[in-house]
Amino acid sequence: MPQAIHAEDLKLTKNQSLVLAVLQSSEQPLSAYSILDRLREHGLKAPLQVYRALDKLLDTGRVHRLESMNAFVVCCHSRRGQIHPQITAFEICEACGKVNEFHETRIEDALTRHARGSGFKIRTTTIEVHGLCAECR
User: Fold this and answer.
1) 71: β partners
2) In this structure, what DSSP letter does residue 46 have?
3) Helix-helix angle 14-25:32-39, to 10 degrees
4) How many helices (H) and strands (E) does the chain have?
5) What does the pLDDT look like over 86-110, one tens digit per residue?
6) pLDDT tens digits for range 9-42
7) Distances from the Cα of 135 to the Cα of 41, 61, 128, 130, angstroms
């Protein structure tokens, strides 16, 4: 589970800052190799450099990994300096690739109650909903 910290509290390394900046400037989710391609001129040469930066950004809740796309996006909460919620959901447009992050407390409460009732300890939860956004319908 990402740590509940404010975005401003995280001290970033050079590589983490570069990776985060690329994701912030992108309107689409990016794979680690797409990030690497955009950062080669800044001295990043190996995928491991990008993956290490992404791991730290994931651990601290600054970015999310979209499992179905094997891609990364900036957490909308970190953009606003907010505390990251425990359970995050995404609407992913299958036509244009636009991703909308949202948090619904009723979903989080229901999953938490269910896990508690079954004795299950939730480590991470990401919900991905695929379909068409309003512009593509």
Assistant:
1) 66
2) S
3) 110
4) 5, 5
5) 788 999 999 999 999 998 889 989 9
6) 468 999 999 999 999 999 899 999 999 999 999 9
7) 35, 29, 19, 14
Cβ atoms within 10 Å, residue 45: 10
DSSP 49-78: HHHHHHHHHHHTTSEEEETTTTEEEE-HHH
Per DSSP (E only), the strands in 13-124 are: 63-66, 71-74, 88-93, 99-102
CA distance 114 to 20: 34
Three-state DSSP class for residue 129: strand
Cβ contact 25:34 at 8 Å: no
How does DSSP classify residue 48? Answer: H
Of residues 101, 48, 109, 96, the one with CA closest to residue 73? 101
Angle at 69 between CA 63 and CA 75, to 5 degrees: 15
Q: Of all helices (H) and strands (E), which one includes residue 34?
A: helix 32-39
**Cβ-proximal residues to 66 (8 Å cutoff; 6+ apart), any chain:** 29, 72, 73, 90, 92, 99, 126, 128
